[in-house]
Amino acid sequence: MTKLSCIIRPEKLEAVKAALSKLGNCGMTVSQVVGCGSQRGWKEVYRGVETTINLLPKVKVEIVVKDDQVDQVVDAVCSAARTGEIGDGKIFIYPVANVIRIRTGEKGEGAI
Amino acid sequence: MTKLSCIIRPEKLEAVKAALSKLGNCGMTVSQVVGCGSQRGWKEVYRGVETTINLLPKVKVEIVVKDDQVDQVVDAVCSAARTGEIGDGKIFIYPVANVIRIRTGEKGEGAI
Amino acid sequence: MTKLSCIIRPEKLEAVKAALSKLGNCGMTVSQVVGCGSQRGWKEVYRGVETTINLLPKVKVEIVVKDDQVDQVVDAVCSAARTGEIGDGKIFIYPVANVIRIRTGEKGEGAI
Amino acid sequence: MKKLLRIGFLLPVFWLLVSNFAWAAGTPAIDTGDTSFVLVSAALVMLMTPGLAFFYGGMVRRKNVLSTIMQSFIIICIVSVQWVLFGYSLSFGPDKSHLLGALSWLGLKGVGLEPNPDYAATIPHLAYAAFQLMFAIITVALVTGSFAERMRFPAFLLFTVLWTTIIYDPLAHWVWGAGGWMRNLGVLDFAGGTVVHISSGVSGLITALVLGKRLGWGSEAMRPHDLPMTVLGASLLWFGWFGFNAGSALSANGLAASAFVVTNTSAAAAALSWIFTEWILQGKPTVLGAASGCVAGLVAITPASGYVGPLPAVIIGLFAGVICSLAVSYLKVRLGYDDALDAFGVHGIGGTWGALATGLFASKAINPAGGNGLFYGNPGQLWVQFVGVVATWLFAAVLTLVILKLVAVFTSLRATAEEETMGLDLPMHGERAYDHIL
Amino acid sequence: MKKLLRIGFLLPVFWLLVSNFAWAAGTPAIDTGDTSFVLVSAALVMLMTPGLAFFYGGMVRRKNVLSTIMQSFIIICIVSVQWVLFGYSLSFGPDKSHLLGALSWLGLKGVGLEPNPDYAATIPHLAYAAFQLMFAIITVALVTGSFAERMRFPAFLLFTVLWTTIIYDPLAHWVWGAGGWMRNLGVLDFAGGTVVHISSGVSGLITALVLGKRLGWGSEAMRPHDLPMTVLGASLLWFGWFGFNAGSALSANGLAASAFVVTNTSAAAAALSWIFTEWILQGKPTVLGAASGCVAGLVAITPASGYVGPLPAVIIGLFAGVICSLAVSYLKVRLGYDDALDAFGVHGIGGTWGALATGLFASKAINPAGGNGLFYGNPGQLWVQFVGVVATWLFAAVLTLVILKLVAVFTSLRATAEEETMGLDLPMHGERAYDHIL
Amino acid sequence: MKKLLRIGFLLPVFWLLVSNFAWAAGTPAIDTGDTSFVLVSAALVMLMTPGLAFFYGGMVRRKNVLSTIMQSFIIICIVSVQWVLFGYSLSFGPDKSHLLGALSWLGLKGVGLEPNPDYAATIPHLAYAAFQLMFAIITVALVTGSFAERMRFPAFLLFTVLWTTIIYDPLAHWVWGAGGWMRNLGVLDFAGGTVVHISSGVSGLITALVLGKRLGWGSEAMRPHDLPMTVLGASLLWFGWFGFNAGSALSANGLAASAFVVTNTSAAAAALSWIFTEWILQGKPTVLGAASGCVAGLVAITPASGYVGPLPAVIIGLFAGVICSLAVSYLKVRLGYDDALDAFGVHGIGGTWGALATGLFASKAINPAGGNGLFYGNPGQLWVQFVGVVATWLFAAVLTLVILKLVAVFTSLRATAEEETMGLDLPMHGERAYDHIL
Ligand SMILES: Nc1ncnc2c1ncn2[C@@H]1O[C@H](COP(=O)(O)OP(=O)(O)O)[C@@H](O)[C@H]1O
Ligand SMILES: Nc1ncnc2c1ncn2[C@@H]1O[C@H](COP(=O)(O)OP(=O)(O)O)[C@@H](O)[C@H]1O
Ligand SMILES: Nc1ncnc2c1ncn2[C@@H]1O[C@H](COP(=O)(O)OP(=O)(O)O)[C@@H](O)[C@H]1O
Q1: A109 lines ligand 2 (CB under 6 A)
Q2: Beta bridge partners of C50
Q3: What is the ipTM of this complex?
Q4: Which of B109, C29, F249, F408 could join F256 via S-S bond, C-beta 3.0 to 4.6 A?
């Protein structure tokens, strides 16, 4: 099994969710993050004290899938989350050793 | 070493913490997430605009343990977090390549 | 490729960011977490009901790097985040299977 | 010359004469200063209920904040309409056997722009009705603190309509209505210790008992989700309470000023004594303690505010903080009821202390229209106060039980376990308070 | 002896005489009760604009909350200075052809500590000017609800200065200025149904149309980011509205009390009818619905508040809740304009309903200085109200268009796509509202 | 016939006579309008301190918000009790060598329901005492802005009691007490430029210097954690300031209206000039700047509010915004003290500007009981103002130092590094403001 950790623009969350549910895939875990990369930051000023914030709001969508679904999910996320501008984000792919469904104790692919 | 990433119901956090500390295990990192899976969503309405939110509040508990502790921790979390209803969550298990304790620079299992 | 997941004190975030950007490394994803480990907790009281909170605020900095950069990043983070007191945090190191840049669809090390 | 002068002189004097005779004959005339004071006071008291919404809203868990705020907010709406339609008439209409007002003022018929000297001789009758409305509103809203985080919204709506009609309106008549039996008996309740605080606190307790404890009570931590919100609420309550107590003088006079001072003093003293009690017994002086303490002090001084001086106010406040803090931290835990936000612990207990304290510290030197208390040589007053307290406890407790049974016939009172776990905001209102993931 | 008495007697009487003659001759005298009432009312109305900032601020997305709050807050500042320099003179200065005030009161010259009986005979002229200022402020602030989340700050500043000068000041003169044509025509607008609500709502609609929809409108969910903040705003609005409507009596008298009661009643009724409409049509009674509903009720009663009794207020409120709720949930979606926070849906529609309802329910029994409406035998009033409404719609719509074209000449109106996506707070103000990652 | 008439005529006139003689003899009579105004003003000023709690609370880091709010909140409680017990007597009691009030009004003994014409002839003495109390409260609360995020709670409590007693009470006597030396000298301070703002700002600076900088100052970003909360605070301050300044007329008259208008005008002008200064020098107009600017304008107009007209108010405000903004952005950074929330930069500097500006712009045309300033031909007034300013700076600075040394004898002033890093909320109060993980 594989985990896809997708860092996307917050405003693309709905589109990504829609794309995934089109694939019949509705398991995911979402969290709020901030990040930086090539995207430029913004200047903040508080009573004359200036700071550059280059950590911009992003959303992290974590999806654990069977290995054979990775490609189609990557494609779906990419096309739903893309604007073509810098800051569209990344998908990081990790190996998953096992999954357990807490409710039933099921393990492995059946538990996803 | 192994990481257990447990997605649980928010109201079960205390019970999971208690179960873990019974095992003598008190290292963990917790964050707020929302997620969906088989659990049904709820309808939201704002001034007539209806949306279904199927991302429900969950808590993610990340625990890095020695490989030989994985099973007992999985069991402890499962029994503490289980209600038997849909939405109890999952435990995702990942391999960990290394751990470093920032304070001392220690590496490997000793740093957990 | 490798992911470094660094759990640090919130007030050390700026220092860690500075240290990383000195290395020419500016890709990272940051989130708010709470955690416990060896650090002692604090007592909370609400209208006479006392609880100990041992989950203290931390910041998680996730950095995906090429394998040959791991050591220098670990060193940079360690020295920037260290106070020498209990609670300085950990760096967890995970293998990364692949990275995709959503904007361009690039894969692998070039996408980091 | 002299004649001319005399005539020029007689004309205005004649006018004065007439106006004086009019005045002498007791026809009430509106005083703009008093009217201004009472209308502004009514606005201040109105603001207390949103204040309460935030005071309570900050104390619940994040998932229930909207449903908690909504209860107070909708109560403003329901009681406002009820009052205009028939509530005011039931409370203050022409007396029926000392128990209830007659229905002759339905729709505020006859409640007009002129004063009603039975209640306030220098302000428009409508201003008095508006001022009293705000008391009716906040009283029901106070009750919601006990049953927070678990009552279904439809049941709550029905409960509100019945409670304000069956419990509040008669009680207000007893204590403040012309002809009410407690008023006739000489119970001193300047701004609502019995009518407002005991009634709501006791009814809250009964509702908490009938509904049962929240899921996880005693095992899960149920921490306030936003304490600055609670402090905001407490601040608005304190601010509005000046209208509540000083406004109850119904005139911008020395008595109002005195009520203003003792109100502030008692609130301050109680906040201090609450946090010092905590500090000694539990180790830390908390912000929630300070906020709760000031409310306890405000509650306790309410019935006494028109009858006592500043030093007794210090004493009433100090005791209120200690008593209520102990009630909330120990009594509740010992007896094991889930009075979620301590409506009983603060309003029931604090109101009882205040009503009795009025019987101790009241002094005719402050208010000749009042009475002397035990410490001013009149133990009888304490007995009268005691009768008032007991009657209110019994009336509120029994009728709340009846109302709950009645409501339960039509709709279930308590949210399902799934709804409660999810938090009431989504199942009841289809909303979440904050958008933590955009 | 008798002589001495007579002299001792004549002296004070002489003083009385003089003062009475003065009074008789119509020289206005300040009444402290009225002055207290109007100054406090002005403070209450001032608080409405921060209230609006929170009402609106809670409804936008997290990334735009500061820019939304800032718009209301800076409007307070801009209009306050404009008013003192020339706005008050334009609105209330000596009449020029029934259309505008002359510029003779620039810098509040001649607006002094004595009453101006043209406007209010018992309060200082400056108190009247201060009270009216607060109306000018909130009116512009209301408009911002329509164009939230996409207008550039510099364009907004220019728009504000022009709008308040070119649209508000003349309108206020027409309706309330001595000599204004609507006032002469007999249009009844007690506290600003046309001047404040129709003008702002209609201008909001036009601005929303000119600016275009927010990016993602219709596809992305645009949820309120903090509903308790919205409830706080609604509560402050409700509280301040007592000053708005009751204060418009300009005297602490029976009429003020009546306006106070009907204001509260209509707000309450509308909140109830809004949530019941939702409940029936969309399945849940929402907190946002209750907050929006009370505002709709307050808007609708505004023009009527000094002319109708409590029962008509119930009716006006009930209809306001239903009409505005439908406008916001269906009309907007059907017609497809992006009135972001429903300034048009609530103020434009609600204000129109209120202005017409005044022509239905006004009664001389409440206010002899007012008029009778259709239901009190005078259909003519409805026609007059209709004329007032149409004139206001047209005037506001056309001139807003002109102003926007003018502003667009100098600076671009709308934020870039990048700025809008990022949220306006950072690009416009260099700040974020909350520090979610420390 | 004629005789009868004369008798019927004489009776009421006799009553008038008596009442007039009474009046003529100077026995003060309560005016309900004035009393209403002052009591409501006192309530408004009370609300300023919670306003300040939010103004400051929003600016600190999330981990310190409760401890910051708690400081203001507990100050309300401490000073309220202190005032009743002995503070009022020290400030306003019978004069002792022009320096202090005698202790004859301990426990508000003799401070009654009748007016005290030395201070206000038409309102109950208790109303005056209540109004003045609110000034004492907010003054100490202002100081806390300088030492936020690092002072220990027990040390803070002790500091508060001592500061209000040793610094505020005498200062209030000097400036406003009957017999106070600054009052005798002719220092004009309508609502507290010296007593309230200079004293708190300067004491804040001293405390900040004695405590030292916060850990990480200069290296870590110390961003406000919730700017909408700061705007809420600023709004409540602005709202309450109407009570502060207009209420200081102690009567609902033309002077109160004038003070109301100039207060609002100066606040508005200063907010605008602050954000334009920022915009030019730092690139963006910020919300924090607007909120800070309005406070700076309110501070600066405070001493002048009863003596200047609207146009001078514009000027005073514009300068206040520029001066304070520069003080906060440049002076502080240049000199390197950690005045955490700029109590000194806004209140110390703004108060000094305001006190001197009073010496420039005061005009007897506005207030015959005041004086003329430099621009109205009386340079002497500026000198007198200067003396008042210098005396206040010195008195506040020296005694604050003494108090801090004294407190340090009993308990340590500053939190440990661990506590400070953790944030003061948990170590000092055992609470967290928000429950981010449930
Ligand atoms: N090396 C990295 N490690 C972890 N997260 C990263 C890394 N690089 C980028 N990210 C995340 O991806 C987001 C988008 O990256 P960015 O480089 O700005 O855009 P793009 O991928 O379009 O070039 C960042 O905000 C950050 O959260
Ligand atoms: N494939 C997945 N990838 C990532 N997270 C998942 C996945 N499936 C479920 N989750 C997480 O687990 C939570 C519970 O899952 P759900 O399917 O609703 O309950 P259950 O496991 O009891 O069937 C979800 O809310 C989500 O956060
Ligand atoms: N076994 C673990 N699994 C996951 N997170 C851990 C673990 N141990 C520690 N952490 C994280 O690291 C943080 C710091 O750890 P702690 O033991 O308190 O300090 P130190 O590493 O200095 O001994 C914790 O708050 C927690 O977030």
Answers
A1: no
A2: C45
A3: 0.94
A4: F249
